[in-house]
Design goal:
12 strands, 14% strand, Helicase, Ruva Protein, domain 3, Rossmann fold
Length: 389
């Protein structure tokens, strides 16, 4: 368990630290409220002890800031000028508990024990809410040798923290592989944060990944946590990593090497614990030859490489995928489920599927809207032809 003590009195800080470390807890210290807020926002603590009367930023301001930022730590306020109104005010503002000085050893240890249970409950509730909002990751559908090999690879690699580079054409399901690597990992209860490197302008990617301080540039009206910080404890998925600028690549490399980053406009290091999974539709060795991608970053990202096959390389999965999409689209849209003839499925196998799984899903939805029941070979010929693509 990790505990932060924020108090301007050195004797109190050290006394609390000795008590808690003797009980086996990991303890860090902050000598004022401003420093304490910085540490609490940069590192997840289970419990934070915070004095109320402090210079620079008092305990009430610290509590308000941490609650506003959504810090999950149990915050215990301590004061030598305790009264009922102060205690009630702190609890209403979001504090877990209020302790009066002089500090009582037994009271502190009981508070720590109870607060740790409170923190666990808060984290569990957050995880449950996440699962309710996102009840499950889409299944990887298919029984072809290529797909069975990918599923086996996911089972082997997911429990580790090894970085993975997922390669394959657009629409093959690279993001789905990344999500399953996260879901089957010990980090599953923590965030899965996705960044589409191709969709963010090069001048903004560093701010998006590493965050920025207020005033770092013209439109930086407030402090912003980047995707690396948002993914702390979880997984960061760098989609289309081959399109990342060389400047951003250099900074990503530093984070992977040192597990720390610096926000734009700051000179302060922030520690992060993130598993990185990257994906690309480009041939990275070719991009290295052209000078568009750093070779050292490639080696950092590609501890494990998983190649997702194109649909044309796994056409035996088309019947399963088609039926899966029919069921999925029916549930999502309320459309009546449809049957599909074997001849229609055989016809679908003859198409090149340059758009891969994404294209197949679009065609299935079109067939459900325009075709009959059952969907026939004639429907496929009429509505899955090139003029509709």
């Amino acid at each position: 368990m990790k505990i932060l003590i924020i108090d301007d009195e050195k004797a109190i800080r050290l006394a609390l630290k000795d008590i808690l470390e003797d009980e086996g807890y990991e303890v860090e210290l902050a000598e004022d409220g401003k420093k304490g807020v910085e540490m609490a926002l940069a590192t997840p603590y289970d419990i934070i002890f915070c004095d109320i009367k402090m210079p620079v930023m008092d305990g009430h301001e610290v509590l308000e800031r941490l609650v506003k930022e959504g810090v999950e730590s149990a915050i215990v306020m301590i004061s030598g000028h305790a009264d009922i109104d102060s205690a009630v005010g702190c609890i209403k503002a979001g504090a877990y508990d209020f302790i009066s000085k002089p500090l009582d050893l037994n009271r502190i240890l009981i508070t720590v024990k109870n607060a740790s249970t409170h923190t666990d409950v808060v984290k569990e509730n957050k995880t449950l809410k996440k699962k309710i909002a996102n009840p499950g990751v889409q299944e990887i559908v298919g029984n072809s040798p290529a797909i069975l090999e990918i599923k086996e690879m996911i089972d082997k690699v997911a429990p580790t923290d090894a970085r993975v580079l997922v390669t394959g054409s657009n629409g093959t399901g690279k993001e789905l592989v990344a999500r399953w690597l996260h879901e089957k990992s010990p980090r599953a209860a923590m965030p899965f944060i996705e960044v589409n490197c191709a969709a963010i302008p090069s001048e903004l990617i560093e701010s998006e990944l590493f965050g920025h301080e207020k005033g770092a540039f013209t439109s930086a009206i407030k402090q912003h946590k980047g995707k690396f910080e948002q993914a702390d404890g979880g997984t960061l998925f760098l989609d289309e990593v081959g399109d990342m600028s060389l400047s951003a690549q250099a900074k990503v490399l530093r984070v992977l090497q040192e597990n720390k980053l610096t926000r734009v406009g700051s000179d302060k290091d922030i520690n992060v614990n993130v598993r990185v999974i990257a994906a690309t539709n480009k041939n990275i060795p070719d991009e290295i030859e052209k000078g568009n991608f750093r070779e050292d970053l490639y080696h950092r990202l590609s501890v494990i490489v998983i190649r997702v096959p194109s649909l044309s390389d796994r056409k035996e999965d088309i019947p399963l995928l088609t039926k899966y999409f029919i069921d999925q689209i029916s549930k999502e849209s309320g459309m009546r489920p449809r049957n599909i003839d074997k001849a229609a499925l055989d016809e679908l196998k003859t198409y090149p599927w340059t758009g891969n799984i994404r294209e197949l899903r679009n065609v299935v939805e079109r067939l459900m809207i325009l075709g009959g029941n059952p969907i026939s070979k004639k429907d496929v010929v009429n509505f899955a032809s090139a003029k509709f693509r």
